[in-house]
Design a protein that fits this description.
The chain is an alpha/beta fold. 36% of the residues lie in helices and 10% in strands. Helix 3 crosses helix 4. It comes from Gordonia hongkongensis.
Length: 234
């Protein structure tokens, strides 16, 4: 039997990367709330599971229905909370009174032939989670948050969205008490489509405003992204 001993380099990546300051804060705050009796660990687990199963499907259904039904479109723009209920989203769930971060004023921003909307939260990462689910990672990055409010047309082009010069870009900054969602225009070539067919091309990115719905595009994956470049002379 050989007496040689070999040190083998660790090749398996740890299951958990280095914890961030925000994760430390979340753990500390969660444990303090449980200790003070604001909610139980079981209630926190149930709410977390509820939040994680939310996706953009109800929002896509809402927009598709608005494209087909002018009366529902008016409801969506005048009373988006009521329109949300029509597609199965109650902003008061699951607690019955909402949460400080989610039960807020909600507004749907309708694109026009000359105006394109895009949402951002320049301060942190406010997002209409009850109807769109959790925000994508890039939405929470300082790169997106800081640059979208300053150079929106360039940032949109980095997502592959080139808007004509005649289309103005309106950046809507979310805040602690206000959430927004974009209602894009119905694309050409969808005449005679059903609500289900239309909802399939309304992706999460369309509802944020960094993409436009197109026939044949039914994925939220952005395939063409150019590197961020600081605008010269800005």
């Amino acid at each position: 039997m050989s007496d040689d001993h070999h040190d083998h380099d660790r090749t398996v990546k740890p299951m958990v990367d280095e914890i961030t300051d925000f994760e430390v804060l979340e753990i500390a705050l969660r444990e303090l709330c449980i200790e003070k009796g604001l909610f139980t660990a079981e209630e926190h687990r149930r709410f977390t599971e509820f939040a994680e199963q939310i996706g953009p499907t109800p929002a896509a259904t809402l927009v598709a229905r608005a494209w087909l039904d002018p009366e529902f479109e008016r409801l969506a723009l005048d009373d988006p909370m009521a329109a949300s209920k029509e597609v199965g989203v109650d902003w008061l769930e699951p607690t019955g009174f909402g949460t400080p971060s989610d039960f807020t004023a909600f507004e749907i921003l309708a694109d026009t032939p000359t105006i394109h909307h895009v949402i951002v939260c320049a301060l942190c990462s406010c997002y209409p989670r009850p109807i769109l689910g959790n925000s994508p990672e890039w939405y929470r990055t300082p790169n997106y948050r800081r640059r979208m409010v300053r150079w929106p047309r360039q940032v949109l082009s980095e997502f592959g969205l080139q808007l004509p010069e005649g289309v103005s870009v309106r950046v809507q900054d979310s805040n602690q008490k206000h959430r927004f969602m974009v209602m894009p225009q119905r694309p050409a070539g969808t005449d005679g489509w059903t609500e289900q067919q239309l909802s399939e091309i309304i992706t999460r990115d369309c509802l944020i405003g960094v993409a436009l719905p197109r026939p044949g595009v039914t994925t939220n994956v952005v395939s063409t992204i150019r590197p961020a470049v600081h605008p010269a002379g800005e």
